[in-house]
Amino acid sequence: MRTVKEISNITGISVRTLHYYDGIGLLKPTDKSEAGYRLYDDKALEQLQQILFFREFDIPLKEIKAVMENPALDRNHILKMQREMLLTKIKRMEHLVASIDDILKGDNKMDFAIFNKIEMDEMFQAMTEHMPEEMKQKAIDEFGGIEKWHEHYIQAVSGDDMQRRYRKMLEWFGGKENYLAAVKNPISKEVVASYQKRMDGILEKLAGKRECSVDSFEVKELIGEYGFVMKQLYQLQDESGMMLSLAKTYRREEVKKATDEKYGNGVAQFFMQAIEAFYK
Fold it and tell me: Which of 11, 24, 43, 251 is deepest in the core (most CB within 10 A)?
């Protein structure tokens, strides 16, 4: 067991910071001495190391806490996630260094594309790795081979329309590195199904409140819970943009019809108004 002072000396983290981590429940001491001093074992030291890895990316402490407490993520999963994030950051730095070298050589191409070629290749690879085999084979057959499919993907992602969409998505995720990390480390199908079940339950309750004002406490409480689940599911830093985009989909005739058939007449309009009232 190590004391707070010893942990501070090993890691360079101040005693005050360790006390704060304990206070917010991010890193609890393993035990306390008879005198009431905090004590940490090797497992706690490993958890602190994982926290510090996340802090390298300026991820808010509350987001780190949510990841560390997620029952679907074990130690190896978190380490693999952090490794991918570090590799992405290294490649990003290499790209920036190369751009500066081009400027110094007088060969500035003024490329303001959101994703560079390496990152787009990585996104394609992540997409194909996590896609169901049946769907992947269908795409390969449609494009006449995986190379042709890859070329089409790069061309589509590089288009102005997709670039505009990505800019909006990066706002939701809190930056490119967060978005790329989410793309490369998608949540398992089992966890997604669990989140979907939870969202369906929220919407069922919300549909039962359609006679209430969208500004009422009970409606706002349910929308707040809905937004929180969406934020966790899609690993967002700010869910408001996605929720407002979701509200707009209820205006589409096919979505409105399907929603009203499932939850009751007029519910699609109610969902839209409730979400917009909460986030606007």
Answer: 11
Of 75 and 12, more confident: 12
Q: Which of 19-23, 198-202, 236-240 has the lowest mean pLDDT?
A: 236-240
Is 129 a residue whose pLDDT tops 90? no
Q: What are the tokens at 50?
A: 């994982």
Could you tell me the pTM of the whole model? Answer: 0.48
Q: What pLDDT was estimated at residue 110?
A: 45
Cβ 158 vs Cβ 113: under 8 Å: yes
Q: What is the DSSP string of the chain?
A: -EEHHHHHHHH---HHHHHHHHHTTSS--SEE-TT--EEE-HHHHHHHHHHHHHHTTT--HHHHHHHHT-TT--HHHHHHHHHHHHHHHHHHHHHHHHHHHHHHTT-------SS-HHHHHHHHHHHHHHS-HHHHHHHHHHHTSHHHHHHHHHHHHHSHHHHHHHHHHHHHHTSHHHHHHHHHSPPPHHHHHHHHHHHHHHHHHHHTTTTS-TTSHHHHHHHHHHHHHHHHHTT-S--HHHHHHHHHHTTSHHHHHHHHHHH-TTHHHHHHHHHHHHH-
Nearest to 59 by CA among 224, 227, 235, 241: 235
